[in-house]
């Protein structure tokens, strides 16, 4: 907590055993916030409310007269989802139910709520939401409105939770669950008029344009059923009509004078952000003490050994747990020869098995694999922020490595995912559609894909797609959020090698047909432009791609023009990869000569050239290292 702000209200004494906490964020006025909490009060043992600092005066004191815990949170947060982790962490009940301030318990939910808490197996439940419209008497019974379900009732075990903090995201919970029949009543369409809701949709469209449901319906349009041709309505239960009417009547009451002041804790942005996977890591994070309390045994070349490692977090950030920590900070190791040279090979990573707070110590088992060399080698165990840097706080120890017989492959538990296959540089992902790439090119592209995906979900842009060969892994990988394909589709194109390239059957339709047949392909995230970058402006792009791949016209002038376009389109730490660098190298050189920004540039096999902006070094990732020596 960073301070106290005045508010009015009485503290409630907490009952001995707390079964259920309700938590909510609000920036509503005092009448509406109060009306919302009053409806939940009889159902829960504790109420925790975060009041947005920009809420009208009086909201905090109205909440405090009903809730056990009230906090003021900074209004400057980009979206309300960023508060969720912290908000859940304040609750002390065995279970937590999160509701928005326009959501009420239905009669059916009131009836079943306590019995849900008694079940032993589920760690969370999905609750449906019914969207009342155009009055509380009816709700929408078709399309996305009918299918709206949300993880809202969760067991209070932070070890099961993860939060990304992204817009429209929610808590992610591991363990057993099911969809409950009893709904939340959602009054979003009743508390705001059509104009206000249209403005809300416009605001969402600016941040996440063109979000689509799997049916193709625009998701942001859910707030304006008036514009979406809604016709199927069902009658609400009479008790639910009554609850909604009481809430709306109270919410519309004119606000009285704000009550006199008491005290309310003010929460800092830093405290809230630590729960969010997608956050910037501060420079003060990179400090730790790493030890191997039991040392390591002698090994055979290429063999695997499991050792215990103890890590004390001496930095200022919380280090996330596995299996896929966000931010991607894990335990890693590197090998050095006796002559002081590093054995530059990809090595294994081990995620933390629990969240490690600043100052805390954890112990875990990690797998280390000996290199294919032997001798008295030096093992350095350290923490690594994937794609960014090593902590350089390593434990160093000598390990005798003897010549091996045959090396066991690294063990993987669970089924192979698309992310595993990309990380393994499995080029069979390129088999369904003919691609104009060599085997080593494909390994390089998969390595870049895997390394960029480590930073979190990303957007991809490609110039020159032909039949979609280089899009095959992208359409199937959910970590790739969106794809832009730019290709004017000429039947032949100039090439600096002196002969024009012919592209028969070169059409967007053909490409979409082929990509549609890829297992798990998500074509809804793909947008195509049948123009070159000379006919297109960056402002027309739906996203800011973190990964751009240039494989269009093979001339110096076109490569330079495409690279300039990508530079304008990409993120501050974006990656621009060129194909056929053996042909378009003069264009790449022109581009680097005029770049004038911090960057790294490197060649990968066979003809993939990479320019990455900012301080990150993909070159250091195990994926890129592995692709440097192509597997045959
Ligand atoms: C080498 S192929 C792309 C191959 C694809 N990336 C793959 O891996 O299978 C080149 C593509 O560039 C496209 N192209 C030609 N001129 C272009 C331009 N000026 N801008 C963008 N793309 C262009 C062609 O239509 C063709 O589809």
Description:
It is a single chain. Helix content is 23%, strand content 26%. Strands 2, 3, 4, 5, 6, 7, 9, 12 and 13 form a nine-stranded mixed β-sheet that branches. Strands 17, 19, 20, 21, 23, 24 and 25 form a seven-stranded mixed β-sheet that branches. The protein starts with a strand and ends with a helix. It has 16 helices and 34 strands. With 632 residues, the chain is α/β, with parallel strands linked by helices. Bound molecules: S-adenosylmethionine (SAM).
Concise account of the structure shown:
Helices cover 23% and strands 26% of the residues. It starts with a strand and ends with a helix. The chain is an alpha/beta fold and 632 residues long.
**Any idea what the radius of gyration is?**
28 Å
Q: Could you say which small molecules are bound to this protein?
A: S-adenosylmethionine
CATH class descriptor of the largest domain: Alpha Beta
**What count of helical segments does DSSP give?**
16
Mean pLDDT across the residues is 91
Structural class: alpha/beta
**Assembly classification:** single chain
**CATH architecture heading of the largest domain:** Alpha-Beta Complex
Task: Tell me the strand percentage band.
Answer: 25-35%
Question: What is the strand and helix layout of this fold?
Answer:
Blueprint: E1 3-5, E2 20-26, H1 30-40, E3 46-52, H2 59-64, E4 69-73, H3 84-89, E5 95-98, E6 103-105, H4 107-118, E7 124-131, E8 138-140, H5 143-146, E9 149-155, E10 161-162, E11 172-173, E12 177-179, E13 184-186, H6 188-191, H7 194-207, E14 233-235, H8 238-251, E15 264-266, H9 269-273, E16 288-291, E17 299-300, E18 304-313, E19 329-336, E20 342-343, E21 349-350, E22 361-369, E23 375-385, E24 389-390, E25 395-402, H10 418-423, H11 439-453, E26 458-463, H12 472-476, E27 480-486, E28 492-493, E29 501-502, H13 508-516, E30 526-529, E31 547-550, H14 556-569, E32 575-578, H15 581-595, E33 599-604, E34 608-613, H16 622-628
Parallel strand pairs: 2-3, 2-5, 3-4, 7-12, 7-13, 17-25, 26-27, 26-31, 27-30, 31-32
Antiparallel strand pairs: 1-15, 5-9, 6-13, 7-9, 8-14, 10-11, 16-18, 18-22, 19-20, 19-21, 19-23, 23-24, 23-25, 28-29, 32-34, 33-34
The structure holds S-adenosylmethionine (SAM).
S-adenosylmethionine (SAM) is lined by residues 435-437, 463-467, 469-470, 486-490, 493, 503, 506, 532, 551-553, 558.
